[in-house]
Design the sequence.
């Protein structure tokens, strides 16, 4: 049996989406909370003895190419810290900070609706252009899951007076469970599809070129609303009762509102990552 909240060894990920549900410029972590939630949903054996405080601490290193002209391909470490109290209130640090509450949920915690606030870290810096601030967002969240399926719908609005834009994301995943596949350890594979809409204000703020920023190789550009789509495969392997590791890769494809910008050099990006998590 899988033990309380523990599984995670991501063995392979193919994604076409903005995994942290923010502007692609700030997509930091590769592994996503919904994937960890999916792993948690299989660990029902120890739910009765689970502490009111629970969560995980870990990190990943992801190697990714940026979508902008001046973003090199590079590896960077990302912390993964998550704490939940009584299945209602939670906090998260994954290169940005988020705090939230589930305002409604079913008794088995499989369907939830709530709100959160998050602040991203880091701003793109382009030569000869004004700095675009990282956003602070208010988020509406709804999730539905079973032991084999997961759906997450989010609506996100900038409340920090950066872009004043908004976005919405739908993520759907399915679990494939392989019992005792690797040296007696269970393996979980999670195919996932993501679709994200970004408003014109959001796209224009991060990918637009203002008249004062025009250069010979950088014409003026007004961003417009766009859709980004995604396809992902993540694998998990439980190592022991409290530790798990993960590895994978994903790709992201962006809509024309972003890719038509003179600041953008590619229509898609890829990312590989590896990490570990300790559960408590």
Sequence:
């Amino acid at each position: 049996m899988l033990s309380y909240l523990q599984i995670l060894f991501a063995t392979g990920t193919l994604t076409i989406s903005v995994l942290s549900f923010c502007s692609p410029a700030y997509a930091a972590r590769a592994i996503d909370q919904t994937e960890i939630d999916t792993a948690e949903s299989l660990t029902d054996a120890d739910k009765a003895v689970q502490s009111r405080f629970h969560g995980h601490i870990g990190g990943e290193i992801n190697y990714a190419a940026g979508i902008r002209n001046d973003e090199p391909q590079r590896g960077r470490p990302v912390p993964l810290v998550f704490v939940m109290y009584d299945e209602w209130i939670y906090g998260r640090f994954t290169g940005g900070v988020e705090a939230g509450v589930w305002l409604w949920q079913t008794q088995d915690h499989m369907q939830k609706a709530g709100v959160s606030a998050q602040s991203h870290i880091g701003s793109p810096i382009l030569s000869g252009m004004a700095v675009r601030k990282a956003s602070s967002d208010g988020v509406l969240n709804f999730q539905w899951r079973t032991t084999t399926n997961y759906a997450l719908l989010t609506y996100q609005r900038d409340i920090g007076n950066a872009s004043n834009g908004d976005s919405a994301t739908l993520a759907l995943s399915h679990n494939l469970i392989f019992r005792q596949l690797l040296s007696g350890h269970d393996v979980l594979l999670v195919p996932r599809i993501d679709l994200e809409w970004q408003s014109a204000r959001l796209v224009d703020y991060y990918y637009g070129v203002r008249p004062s920023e025009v250069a010979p190789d950088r014409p003026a550009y007004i961003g417009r609303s766009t859709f980004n789509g995604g396809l992902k495969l993540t694998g998990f392997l439980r190592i022991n009762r409290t530790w798990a590791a993960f590895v994978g890769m994903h790709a992201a494809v962006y809509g024309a509102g972003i890719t038509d910008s003179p600041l953008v050099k590619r229509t898609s990006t890829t990312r590989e990552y590896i990490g570990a998590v300790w559960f408590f």
